[in-house]
């Protein structure tokens, strides 16, 4: 079965996000009343797995071993069956 | 003869500088080792030089952590052999979990290329024996050198003497101005609990002779020959 997983990786709340701070300053300079900006990234992975449980396990391996660094980042994900082309 | 492996990942750029640096040190020979062919048997120490391994994609050092060389490095480090990572090499060691903590974008968001001072906080590593409390002047060149770890880890590192280098001014005071990247507690380098694996953001290989503007890197790198020969004292050049 083919699956598509979307991971949202974010810097942990207690860890500084210098890119977010820079964007905050820039947004304020546009005259907007912005109080906080946090950045992150979205990673979309298409892969094959036996069933949904195996797909979940694979995506957690991807997140824990490579796509996020647990020292500084958290991630969330959702997995769906790929739509036939 | 002390045999030092210089690991080369795709995008590593400081391995030749390390090769040159060690060529100035008596009784040390080096070999540049491609990451896919990494076999560290027969080597006495390993260096992870700086650069932009895998283009810094995903996070600096992240992709290198799953290379065959890093697997071999884990085995080598577990045997207690000395390992030194500089700049991107420090980032790789942190990503691989061989050192605690992580390196974020510099607090200034600027790439910093400069000469800075670091104070040696621990002489209980093969790289810093005999250098306790010495203030060294070294170059840096990095965009992601802001060292962070959770508060418990930082407290543990301080208590165990695993903070090896701290950014200071030229007199050895760890001031805010002396911190080039926003690192927690001015930390410039740390070791593992055993002390054999050390990472730092500055570049010891770029200050090994007067022509390069400084020689303090020689004092760190030359240590490896003496540490392994059992004399355990840095020589000063």
Describe this structure in words.
The complex is a heterodimer of chains A (85) and B (237). Chain A is 33% helix and 33% strand. By secondary structure, chain A is of the alpha+beta class. Chain A has one domain: 2-Layer Sandwich (Mth169, Chain: A), CATH 3.30.1280.10. A 3-stranded antiparallel β-sheet of chain A has the order 2-1-3, covered by helices on one side. The two termini of chain A are 14 Å apart. The two termini of chain B are 20 Å apart. Chain B has a single domain (2-229), classed as Rossmann fold. The model of chain B is unreliable at 231-237 (pLDDT under 50). Chain B has 6 helices and 11 strands. Chain B is an alpha/beta fold. Chain B has a 9-stranded mixed β-sheet, with helices on both faces. Chain A binds chain B through residues 11, 14-16, 18-19, 22, 65-67, 69, 71-72, and chain B through 58-59, 62-63, 65-66, 94-95, 100-102, 104-109, 146, 148-150, 182.
Describe this protein with a few key phrases:
heterodimer, A: 85 residues, B: 237 residues, alpha/beta, Rossmann fold, 9-stranded mixed sheet, two-stranded antiparallel ribbon, 6 helices, 22% helix, 25% strand, disordered C terminus
């Amino acid at each position: 079965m083919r699956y598509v997983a979307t991971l949202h990786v974010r810097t942990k709340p207690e860890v500084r996000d210098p890119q977010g701070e820079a964007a905050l300053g820039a947004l304020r300079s546009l005259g907007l009343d912005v109080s906080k900006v946090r950045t992150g990234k979205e990673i979309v992975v298409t892969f094959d797995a036996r069933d949904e449980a195996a797909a979940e396990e694979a995506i957690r391996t991807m997140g824990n071993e490579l796509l996020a660094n647990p020292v500084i980042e958290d991630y969330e994900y959702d997995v769906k069956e790929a739509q036939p082309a | 003869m002390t045999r030092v492996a210089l690991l080369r990942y795709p995008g590593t750029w400081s391995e030749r500088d390390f090769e040159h640096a060690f060529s100035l040190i008596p009784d040390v020979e080096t070999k540049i080792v491609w990451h896919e062919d990494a076999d560290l048997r027969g080597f006495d120490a390993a260096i992870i030089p700086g650069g932009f391994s895998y283009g810094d994609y995903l996070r600096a050092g992240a992709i290198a952590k799953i290379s065959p060389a890093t697997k071999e490095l884990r085995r080598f480090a577990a045997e207690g052999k000395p390992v030194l990572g500089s700049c991107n090499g420090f980032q790789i060691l942190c990503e691989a979990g061989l050192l605690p903590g992580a390196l974020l974008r510099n607090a200034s968001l600027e790439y910093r290329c400069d000469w800075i001072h670091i104070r040696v906080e621990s002489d209980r590593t093969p790289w810093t024996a005999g250098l306790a409390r010495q203030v060294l002047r070294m170059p840096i060149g990095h965009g992601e050198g802001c060292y962070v770890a959770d508060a418990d880890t930082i407290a543990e590192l301080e208590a165990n003497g695993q903070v090896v280098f701290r950014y200071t001014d030229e007199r050895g005071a760890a001031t805010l101005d002396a911190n080039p990247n926003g690192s927690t507690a001015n930390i410039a380098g740390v070791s593992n609990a055993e002390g054999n694996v050390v990472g730092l953001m500055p570049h010891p290989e770029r200050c090994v002779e007067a022509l390069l503007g400084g020689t303090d890197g020689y004092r760190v790198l030359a240590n490896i020959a003496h540490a392994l020969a059992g004399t355990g004292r840095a020589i000063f050049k």
